[in-house]
Design brief:
single chain; two-stranded antiparallel sheet; five-stranded parallel β-sheet; 28 helices; 4 domains; mainly alpha; 659 residues
């Protein structure tokens, strides 16, 4: 039976891909196939519904069935004769319904096989095929509660009851599929969409919710805001960011009441107080405080987190507004005492001692919010979402259901609830904007899986009592005690060791968790040491490389200097050679001139008639006297004079050439 239900959900998604915006039309192939298979001569609605549930594992009430049959009449697959509906044999056909169903059955068998293998390999848990099918169907059950808050009848999906262990295992399997096997993750997505479609058909007046959200004012509750700001983890934050962006894209206006904002900030500030408090008790801590604590937030970290809240409001255009006055809108005030009674009744179905757990203030704020919406609507009974104008959105399906019950008791004609769940409004968005469905639903599935594997209050309470007993019995050290109580790894291992079921928890489990924590810490320490050594080696290699580069640069500089010096010496040598040659030429010239003067002076002295004029004789005499004086000054020898002449010429030439 369960397998038929899951296959039908998958087929609904296939039909939806074809029909898109018509959620009624997606059921037509089911009816056509059933009519052909059973060879009905005429259509008996109750018989059809019974056969439908037997064949497809989905429950359809009378009125939705009539809606689908009317669509088949409109499309001429059925004809009215003598007050009866009969199949139009000339055109009736189920298309490729049989092939689609066969293919979806094959995929389901594969997914079931993989789930069973995963549970056995990773957790040594053996699931039967039926248990696996039930676990998958239960994984989607959250949607039924969220979507059908305003429906008083029986849901279309049969209820299945599975253990916490199986809930945990299928959530882990889905997370594994998201990371390792996208095809299986997509199958979960498909049946999740089918699940929503199967429940949507139950609303006779669902079309009244249709259309864009433009101009509708949505007031967000505290739970929604905690998800949106990331106080319950990144995965849940991403899911709510996706949904909130869809609101804005559709033109919705987003608000929070002042009292909701005050409650949010009060809870966050209490987290600042308790986060480093030695009296912190995880069993009594709220969800946000447990998140901050297990994630290792310090007091300053939480304060930084609080300071970022206003940025989130700005990003998503969320405005804080006061609730309307009780005095100016007194005529639209509802009976808050009766509303409180209905809310408490619904809450006690989930948490029997809700008033004893200090939830009075929370309940009063819920009442304030719903009562405020009534005053904002000013007594109108809207028949469409656009007429409603004001809607309170909550993540608490029990509150939405309580509000709807109270509403119907006041006025049975009421259609558009004052309070809706986030899932229901998200469903409205994607039903009329199919392109958004994949992101919205996959993020939501991931968020649900994440939430499902977190230890619940019962498990945490029992675990902490077990840890206290281990400490009291001196089975663990004080250091071990704090490791087991305060590290995020402890709660991660707690979920894995117990598979989310408090009945699996024993004192041995506490010791096993301690061992796992220490092993992880050791590995992390070793990893840090390895990383440090690697970084040290990298730094050492870099320093050596830098040293080699510097040494090479120094060597290159030396080589360059020596080269320049060599070039300079080579140039200097060439210049010296040239200077020496020039010196020799000039000095030789003057030396020859000196000899000539000496010879002429000798000739003039002994052969005056040979020299010629008297003037020339005087000039020659003067030169002779000068050269004779130079000889005497420089040592008196011809050789010395030659050396001195050469020396003076070299000095003069060097000065001219070298400067």
């Amino acid at each position: 039976m369960t397998s038929n239900t899951i296959i039908s959900l998958a087929v609904l998604k296939v039909n939806w891909d074809i029909k898109k915006q018509d959620y009624i039309e997606v059921f037509a192939p089911f009816f056509l196939n059933l009519i052909l298979t059973n060879n009905y001569e005429r259509i008996d609605v109750d018989k059809l519904r019974s056969d439908f549930e037997q064949e497809y594992g989905l429950h359809l009430p009378h009125h939705p069935s009539i809606t689908i049959l009317n669509r088949l009449v409109k499309n001429k697959f059925l004809i009215r004769e003598g007050g009866q509906l009969k199949p139009n044999r000339n055109i009736i056909n189920a298309g490729d319904f049989a092939q689609v169903s066969t293919e979806q059955k094959r995929i389901l068998n594969h997914v079931i096989s993989q789930l069973i293998t995963f549970c056995n390999d990773k957790y040594k848990e053996i699931l039967t095929i039926i248990e696996a099918e039930n676990a998958i169907l239960n994984f989607l059950a959250e949607y039924q509660l969220e979507i059908l808050f305003a429906y008083q009848g029986e849901g279309s999906i049969p209820e299945v009851h599975v253990s916490k262990t199986h809930q945990f295992l299928v959530s882990k399997f889905f997370q594994h599929a998201v990371e390792q096997d996208p095809k299986i993750a997509d199958y979960f997505l498909n049946i999740a969409i089918g699940y929503v479609l199967a429940n949507t058909i139950l609303y006779n007046e669902f079309d009244r919710f249709s259309g864009k959200l433009k101009g509708v004012n949505y007031y967000l509750d505290t739970g929604y805001l905690f998800f949106l700001i990331g106080a319950n983890g990144e995965i849940l934050k991403e899911a709510f960011e996706e949904l909130t962006n869809s609101f804005l894209a559709d033109g919705a206006n987003l608000f929070i009441f002042q009292h909701t904002y005050d409650e949010l900030m009060k809870i966050l500030r209490s987290c600042v107080y308790w986060i480093d408090n030695p009296d912190y008790d995880p069993e009594k801590a709220g969800r946000a405080l447990r998140f901050f604590y297990t994630e290792g937030f310090s007091k300053s970290d939480v304060e930084v987190f609080i300071n970022k809240v206003s940025a989130v409001f700005i990003r998503f255009q969320i405005k804080v507004v006061p609730k309307p006055s009780y005095f100016t809108d007194k005529q639209y005030q509802v009976d808050e005492t009766e509303l409180r009674k209905v809310i408490v009744e619904k809450y006690e179905l989930i948490e029997p001692l809700v008033l004893e757990y200090g939830k009075e203030l929370t309940i009063q704020r819920d009442i304030d919010s719903i009562s405020a919406i009534y005053r904002l609507r000013q007594g109108q009974l809207p028949h469409t979402l656009k007429e409603a104008k004001h809607v309170f959105i909550t993540t608490n399906s029990a509150l939405a259901r309580a509000s709807y019950s109270f509403e119907k008791a006041i006025n049975p004609e009421s259609v558009i609830p004052t309070c809706m769940t986030d899932v229901f409004v998200g469903t409205l968005i994607w039903l009329y904007s199919p392109a958004k469905v994949v992101n919205l639903k996959m993020k939501q599935l991931m968020a649900n899986a994440f939430a499902a594997i977190q230890p619940d209050t019962l498990l945490i309470g029992k675990y902490l009592r077990t840890v206290e007993k281990l400490k009291k019995d001196s089975s663990i050290t004080t250091e071990d005690y704090y490791l087991l109580r305060t590290t995020s790894a402890a709660y991660e291992f707690l979920a894995d060791k117990t598979l989310g079921d408090e009945h699996r928890l024993t004192e041995k489990t506490g010791q096993e968790i301690l061992y796992e924590i220490k092993t992880r810490l050791k590995k992390e320490s070793e990893a840090k040491l390895t990383t440090a050594l690697i970084e040290h080696e990298k730094e050492k290699t870099a320093l050596l490389r830098e040293r080699d580069i510097k040494q090479k640069m120094l060597q290159d500089a030396k080589t360059e200097i020596l080269k320049e010096r060599g070039d300079k010496l080579s140039l200097q040598g060439r210049l010296e050679n040239r200077i020496e040659i020039i010196t020799k030429v000039i000095a030789g010239f003057f030396y020859l001139l000196l000899l000539l003067v000496a010879i002429l002076a000798f000739v003039d002295n002994y052969f005056p008639s040979f020299v010629g004029t008297e003037s020339f004789s005087k000039a020659l005499g003067t030169l002779f006297i000068i050269f004779s004086g130079w000889f005497l000054y420089d040592g008196g020898g011809l050789k010395d004079a030659k050396f001195s002449l050469k020396k003076q010429v070299r000095k003069l030439v060097r000065k001219i050439i070298l400067g």
